[in-house]
Design a protein that fits this description.
With 232 residues, the protein is α+β, with helices and mostly antiparallel strands. It is 25% helix and 26% strand. The chain contains 4 helices and 12 strands; from the N terminus they run E-E-E-E-E-E-E-E-E-E-E-H-E-H-H-H. The N and C termini lie far apart (59 Å).
Amino acid sequence: MISRSLVLDFAGELHSAQPGERLTVGRAGDVSIDDNPFLHREFLALEWAGGLWWVHNVGGRLAAYLTDERGLMRSTLAPGAKLPLVFPRTLVTFAAGDTSYELELTVPGAAYDADDNPRDGSGLLTIVPGKFTDSQLLAVLALAEPVLRREGTGAGEIPSTQAAASRLGWTTKRFDKKLENVCDKLSAAGVRGLRGGPGGMAANRRRHLVEYAVSTRLVTPEDLPLLDPPRG
């Protein structure tokens, strides 16, 4: 018999739901993931309808991003929108303030799965239009490092531009230039949220870039050793 249960994993904490039950995620949800004041009290709601589990963005400001476990397919869940969970495992990423979050949703009875996409010799999935230089990918990796170093799902702080540049031993000016090039390429390919003016938009751009890079596996935990090359 095909299971209709849903399992949510956040930082190793498992929550399950059966058809007819409603599971909410947020500061004051059934799954209370953080006391972050930038996070909605109720952000996501998981419900069974029409023979499928659906995830509904019940917040008013934040977007969530859904990808299959291989990071080959990505959907944006805007406030008020809802999507069915059609893959056995779906990763949900979102950010509030300077913190990025990742949940894993498992639906054992889901009937679909994404086709595998082979990795190239660089160790990076070639799923993003355009090509990036090694230094551009290092800039992305430095920003995503705290998120990639957590084990499994959970939350990770996104570093400032100055901290990421220092991690690479670069000047802030050089880091900003590499970041600008990456954002230009992704924006031209249709990725939203990576262009904007100075001030608060800089933090938003870093957040959107990390969300995109992690959820699409542009950078992965296996790439982290590139931040500490052998000496001598």
